[in-house]
Design brief:
By secondary structure, this protein is of the alpha/beta class. 34% of the residues lie in helices and 23% in strands. It folds into two domains: 73 residues, GMP Synthetase, Chain A, domain 3 (2-Layer Sandwich); 249 residues, P-loop containing nucleotide triphosphate hydrolases (Rossmann fold), CATH 3.40.50.300. Helix 3 packs across helix 10 and helix 5 packs across helix 6. Bound molecules: adenosine-5'-triphosphate (ATP). Adenosine-5'-triphosphate binds next to helix 3, strand 12, strand 14 and helix 9.
Length: 346
Amino acid sequence: MNEADVRERLAGVDDPDLGDDIVSLGLVNDVEVDDAGEIRISLALGAPFSPHESAIADDVREAFADTDFEVALSASIPDELDAAEQVLPGVQNVIAVASGKGGVGKSTMAVNIAAGLSALGARVGLFDADVYGPNVPRMVAAEERPRTDGDTIVPPERFGVKLISMDFLTGEDDPVIWRGPMVHKIITQLVEDVQWGELDYLVMDLPPGTGDTQLTILQTLPLTGAVIVTTPQEVALDDAVKGLRMFGKHDTNVLGIAENMAGFRCPDCGGFHEIFGSGGGKALAREHDLPFLGGVPLDPAVRTGGDDGEPVVLDEGETADAFKVIVENVANNAGVVRRRGVSEGR
Ligand SMILES: Nc1ncnc2c1ncn2[C@@H]1O[C@H](COP(=O)(O)OP(=O)(O)OP(=O)(O)O)[C@@H](O)[C@H]1O
């Protein structure tokens, strides 16, 4: 078997999202066949542990299952910038979790997406950039504070996720009024001076709305895309549209709409009550031609998260499964953004 034979077989592997085979899409970086019976293939895949990219890798292995060759796969998306020029050289994907309005469960969603990606096997960081209400440490019962190591900050870990929060910078019950330039400085510093190491995903919990912090992040970080969280209520949906406009203005990809508090299963009567209405998130996604990532019901377990602040996504059951669907869709859609970038940039 030579390189051309390998490519011919690879041309039989389809990308489940982009509607063509991986060779035509330019997703094969490199192929080597050696005398020892090994085929080394480098693919332009960018969303580690996403179900769709894992399926592509499986299909590639399957394409050589009838041969005696060993297949060694690697994945990398060629960077446009040198490592020295990149803001976060070790981070593959930055995913912002945003909402137009406060209290819709944005932080809850960010925590569960981060923990869920980590549970899939990915290396994950979570940056709680909610300057006005940094509640992630409390949510995951993070006792440990960051350490300093020379000029850098070492983030503590919870559930395998490296965590940095604006809350670490302020005392408890010590409301800080951040002005625009301060926000800019702090965010840049927190991103650049933290030892994130090599990460597959950095999830950013943005403050609600469309203010200074969001702008700073959009302008300074290479975002793979944003997740917009909304409840099915009319007012929340209206505000979500403002968020969409902000991302649109900055050419930021929106990975999709996640709906929170989508109904309540009553533990007493067993009935399902649609407290804030139904179908709003899905309709919003359809209207703006965006993916709908899934919906999570109102469930007291989401708030309590167990005694040790364990995110519900790590649990079993209906609500955990609802979060897992969102996690998988976020990863899959991040992959679409990355692979489409390679394919269209050729
Ligand atoms: N699906 C849910 N079921 C039950 N409680 C929930 C659910 N989602 C969120 N909550 C609770 O609602 C409250 C608000 O959620 P959260 O802090 O995630 O919202 P937020 O949008 O990040 O708010 P803000 O950014 O304004 O602080 C929290 O106490 C959280 O535990």
